[in-house]
Amino acid sequence: MQVAKRAGVLCGGFIWPSGKPSLTCSKGVLMRLSRYFLPVLKETPSEAQIVSHRLMLRAGMIKQSSAGIYSWLPMGYKVLKRIEQIVHEEQQRAGHIPMLMPTLQPADLWRESGRYDAYGPEMLRIRDRHERDMLYGPTNEEMITDIFRAHVNSYKDLPLTLYHIQWKFRDEVRPRFGVMRGREFYMKDGYNFDLTKEAALHAYNRHLVTYLRTYERMGLQAIPMRADSGPIGGDNTHEFLVLADTGESEVFYDSEITDLKFGDRDIDYDSVEECQGVLEEFTSRYARTDETHDEAEFAAIPEERRRTARGIEVGQIFYFGTKYSDALGAKVVNDNQEQVPVHMGSHGIGVSRLVGAIIEASHDDKGIIWPEGVTPFHCGIVNLKQGDDEADAACEQLYSALTARGLDPLYDDRKERAGGKFATMDLIGLPWRITVGPRGLKNGVVELTSRKSGESVELTPEAAVARIAEIYALT
RNA sequence: CGGGGCGUAGCGCAGCCUGGUAGCGCGGCGGUUUUGGGAACCGUAGGUCGUAGGUUCGAAUCCUAUCGCCCCGACCA
User: Which residue among A340, A364, A388 closes a domain?
Assistant: First the structure.
């Protein structure tokens, strides 16, 4: 499956895995700050403790609805959709098939697997008007297995990997950290079905590869660490952790692991050897969370390479064999006319959590610093003298030239003072800013500033557009 | 679920102890002067003081109940 490598252009947050814009905005309304909806806050709302939560509130990305449940305001929604888009592209690159399952599930399905009682009060239970027990799904193993058993009967239909990205709910006793540990959360979960354990382990490895590429595209280093299987069960599982001081788990690792880069390698996802090779490369060094930490093994690493840090979990992959296929009777006929339970695994990526995790990993005291792969807008245009004919015209031209190139700029066309505009741009964290003012225009130049380094260069407007386009690898 | 805290204007807070016409800063709106890193001044709008009951001549303030939110811990994608 061929998936465009270019950054998808978002308009109003509507996207689908083609990577192409499906519509254009009326007169660019969605890209002019004076007509957009970006309710930034100068002061930090008192409920927020950690930096990503504070910045998401201040940058007008989210609004809390109740504990652990949030509305995604336009700019937050854009970032969420950009992350979702990357996940879609990387899953489909590996041949995994998108679908969508409901948020509400019948309790009977969970009674079959035995998890209705096992799950406890974190499961939100609901009763409909007919007094039927329902639940707001915290995950989808039962439901996907039910779909599978209804429609798949032969080994010839395997292997199969289905995934969806959907809202889920876990009634956490104590939600906190904004979207990083909400009760309602947006998550990709995928399920593989294979005839044999070996085939299912290849699916496991293949997912590890897709995850490495996915996180790198988001500007993150997420380290696969050996994990605990928890209530999902199974004996083969890795968690992906982003290193950040505010992470909820303590992690222990060999510093060599942070030198590993997946990069732009071309992987044949059907090749058992290639996927196995990547897994070995990325998991052979010591990397554990506190749950699986082994002091003796850790001590065997040369002291100068031992690292203890904190991490945010942004994904997990499992192989759990026939646990659910046995319980729910998901069997296929093999080439020997026998009914055999399928081998399964499940694989999650916390899409909404990633928004917070990326900010935790990428910010400074002025605000967010978006990695280019997930930024809500490719660049900002700051007009320092709104109402000045020359400055207005230069901004309009820049704006048109950027959009004509398929880029998605945010034009600050408000009648604000320079300081306020700069502060807003720094807060919302667009990676590049083009500053347009009478002073530069006198010499035919605008200023291009990196949010990350703070460095500025003076360029002609045409060169600035070309430069941004080059950065985003668009033509 | 144990322990603690807080609900007063869009946001941040004071007022409560010791009951007596609800305040400050930021933000909003109008205006004047400003204009390359969150400007100054003048004016102006905006609040069932979380909710319900009680005590009292009178309750943001005291009492009771209740709802919500936050923090620490245990738990978790």
Answer: A364
Task: Assess whether A311 and A421 both reside in one domain.
Answer: no
Residue nearest to nucleotide B70 (CA to C1'): A47
Q: Which of A165-169, A402-406, A470-474 has the lowest mean pLDDT?
A: A470-474
Domain C-terminal end among A341, A364, A387? A364
A428 and A320 in one domain? no
- Provide the CA A174 to C1' B1 distance, Å, integer: 10
Q: Is residue A315 situated within a structural domain? A: yes
A369 is a domain residue = no
- A420 is in which domain, residue-wise? 26-36+377-471
Distance in angstroms: CA A184, C1' B51: 27
Q: Based on the domain organization, do A464 and A332 belong to the same domain?
A: no
Which nucleotide, over all strands, has the C1' atom closest to the CA of A120? B75
Question: How many domains in chain A?
Answer: 2
Tell me whether residue A101 is exposed, middle or buried, using C-beta atoms within 10 angstroms of its C-beta: 0 to 12, 13 to 18, 19 or more: middle
A281 and A200 part of one domain:
yes
Distance of A65 CA from B56 C1′ (whole Å): 39
This prediction's pTM:
0.94
Structure confidence at residue A22 as a pLDDT band (50, 70, 90): very low
Residues A318 and A386 in one domain: no
Closest Cα partner for A61 from A47, A40, A31, A86? A40
Position A340 in a domain: yes
A14 within domain boundaries: no
How distant is C1' of B48 from CA of A114, in Å? Answer: 50
The CATH number for A73's domain is 3.30.930.10
Quick: pLDDT tens for A105-145: 999 999 999 999 888 889 999 999 899 999 999 999 999 99
Q: How far is the CA of A44 from the C1' of B24 (A)?
A: 18
Q: What is the pLDDT of residues A433-474, one digit of tens each?
A: 999 999 999 999 999 999 999 999 999 999 999 999 999 986
Looking at residue A235, its pLDDT comes to 63
Q: Which nucleotides of B are covered by protein (CB under 7 A)?
A: 1-2, 11-13, 25-27, 34-39, 68-77
Q: Is A215 found in the same domain as A74? A: yes
